[in-house]
Amino acid sequence: MSEEKENIQFELTKELVEQVEQLIEANNDKELRKLLNEFHYADIAEILDELNLEEAMYVIKLLDSETTSEILMELDEDNREKVLKNLSAQEIAEEVEELDTDDAADIISELPEERQQDVINRIEDLEHKAEITELLTYDEDTAGGLMAKELVKVYETWTVAGCMRRIRGQAKEVTRVHSIYVVNKEEKLIGRLSLKDLIVAKSDQKISDLVKVNVDYVNVHDNAEDVAKVMAKYDLEAIPVVDDNQTLLGRITIDDIVDVLKEEAEKDYQLAAGITQDVEADDSILKLTKARLPWLLIGMVGGLGAASIIEYFNEAMGSFIVLLSFVPLIQATAGNVGVQSSAIVVQGLANDSVDGNIIKRLFKEFFLGIVNGCAIAIIALLITHFVFSTPYIVSITIGIALISVIIMAALIGTFIPIFLDKRGIDPAVATGPFITTSNDVFGILMYFLIAKLILGF
Amino acid sequence: MSEEKENIQFELTKELVEQVEQLIEANNDKELRKLLNEFHYADIAEILDELNLEEAMYVIKLLDSETTSEILMELDEDNREKVLKNLSAQEIAEEVEELDTDDAADIISELPEERQQDVINRIEDLEHKAEITELLTYDEDTAGGLMAKELVKVYETWTVAGCMRRIRGQAKEVTRVHSIYVVNKEEKLIGRLSLKDLIVAKSDQKISDLVKVNVDYVNVHDNAEDVAKVMAKYDLEAIPVVDDNQTLLGRITIDDIVDVLKEEAEKDYQLAAGITQDVEADDSILKLTKARLPWLLIGMVGGLGAASIIEYFNEAMGSFIVLLSFVPLIQATAGNVGVQSSAIVVQGLANDSVDGNIIKRLFKEFFLGIVNGCAIAIIALLITHFVFSTPYIVSITIGIALISVIIMAALIGTFIPIFLDKRGIDPAVATGPFITTSNDVFGILMYFLIAKLILGF
């Protein structure tokens, strides 16, 4: 296995990074260029992420802009920002010239506003410049923010032979030809063709006879996540983008969608773990603190809330002070159940497999809570009585409290995400610490109320 | 926005499901066929998932196998199993006949073993049959398990014109032509071409002059997740699969990879939420219990462990019984910090952005713990003293305990995933309840030890 792995996985070794550093220090441009040219630009970006800024700049200035423009796209965002700061507007414009319009617009949008226009003004290719300027007007979370202007377009009135001739020209600019989009003379999208269809067809056939009119498309203002869902669901590799008048504006390819899906999954994962989105292990302590502290504060408020509940019951408890020992058990159980329930609902909502029928789902969680609750309660009852030697009545109290708390936590964990989703709020915020904290507090309150009822203190 | 959304998102309404049910009950085949033919097969699958088995079977028998085979692939796994049970071996063979080899092999592998051979024997197309039989020999988590046999292959000795002629034949069977793979006379992969290259080339050029030899490929035994990472990283839309002798066996397309990436993200998310993988909101209560109860039991063991720690210190505590009120605060904080730290590391490991330097990362978490710990401790100190009126010395104890617990939780949350990863165990199992529970117990132990030290009980 380990031998085969080398085939497919580039491995970033310390030795490789050191070798690059030494070549930089020795100003050995020839060897360095030779070494780096063996690697894919995504791999070179990984190497640059390990170098210091000065070394990274050395490499960027050494390689040709066709390669460095792609490397730039693959760098860590923080590192890219630093590199761009160290490039002149003219140099950035040269990089941008090499990129597809969607990547070019992304790079420019990351620049400080005062530099953006300066860079745009220096782009020599007038068509490229106009297209990038157009793309910059769309919100980055929309179809317009994802699309590229590069596409292959034919008119319905053309013949296959004429089409092939003209496509040869357009296709040179388009890295990958997924589909050929067919428009009418008003530039409105009327259908699509695959290159394969064209090759298989007879050369005097009319495009209007071949075109598949049942084409999926998205509006330029559609939400990026919705576009991703549609492309994943229908297994599309590219989708055309139109404006409100059905005019063909651009196309979105699957590789951009893979990024959207990955980011979305990471965001939900981090929210569930109590981290405000968009941090990485390598971020600065300040940035990590900003992402983590808010949820810790919420947890603290919950912990202090629990403390006041305990304080309140503490005095009245008298000989049942042993109940306090089982607060962590109640709290851990409530927290775990809450996170489980909410995670399942959040994931279901993300996949559109959970519909809005709250009542049905709450009933299910209720029964699930009874099943899990009884299992946990019986085991806890036996262990507390026989291992901790608590009196039967106290063990029974703990058992009943566990069942009630599990049911309550399951219901809260299910209800809140569905409720937030109905209000148009991302239900993922209701996972993790949010649900744990509220369940901690309600769980402990419920525990003491049940104890008071049964034990009568 | 809502108007535009209709363009791209199929909406599964109660009315639509009811309409389908009514047409089935009325045996109105013509209207039903007309209604369903308006939808994409992925949408029809969503409708079928809402029907009962009898109704779903009615629809499957009604539509032609070209459509139903694709619908089958999109059904919920549980529902597909039920539908397949109700189809004869002959009927399944007819569905399989319509599918690409990778999907066909997936369907057959889901059948009970005794039915598999029966279905295979009934496949009429001998080439299709042989290819499916080959695919069934590979492990589903490998490149072989993902690949399809459908691809466009040319020999290096051919000319462009000859190539185009032969491709017309092959391409009819291949839904999407991403790349044309070039082999030598021993069938060994030597490079690739795009359809675009072919169209742009002159018709008397030799393939060996056009071929791009620097082609990415994977070995048939490579791990599926590794393949997914490579394709995502290098933005590949298809990758050829070879055996140990470099013989071209098949190709993997990006849509299969999108599914692998989604499943991977869901698995990690569920582990972090304390759910053993592979459940959905719509699964049965039994299945959901099986997925959720194990983690709850682990949480219970932790809670009982915490109880014995409290019992142990309880008697000695005397007048400092107020310390018990702040156990939930300590526990919640330890749990939250642990989940945050582990989630960041797990995600970093998944993205290959965290390397194995444990010491460096632990130092970082240590400082992060001090920063977060001091912030939380100071606030808690002020609130406990001024709101809860605890004596200064107790508030200070709580503050110091919080700092220590936060640092400890951060270190445990960072260390365990990296440790597991080094041992070849999926670090994602160390998120969620696992980390919460261990941090709960250690946190409470540390709290009382610090209290004992400061307050001297």
Automatic annotation (TrEMBL), chains A, B:
PROSITE patterns linked: CBS
GO cellular component, one term: plasma membrane
Domain of life: Bacteria
One MF annotation (Gene Ontology) recorded for this entry: magnesium ion transmembrane transporter activity
Membrane topology: Multi-pass membrane protein
Domain CBS, first and last residues per copy: 147-208, 210-267
Transmembrane segments: 293-313, 319-346, 366-388, 394-420, 432-455
Main location (coarse class): membrane
Quaternary structure note: Homodimer.
Similarity comment: Belongs to the SLC41A transporter family.
Protein name: Magnesium transporter MgtE
Species assigned in the record: Hwangdonia lutea
Name of the gene encoding the protein in the UniProt record: mgtE
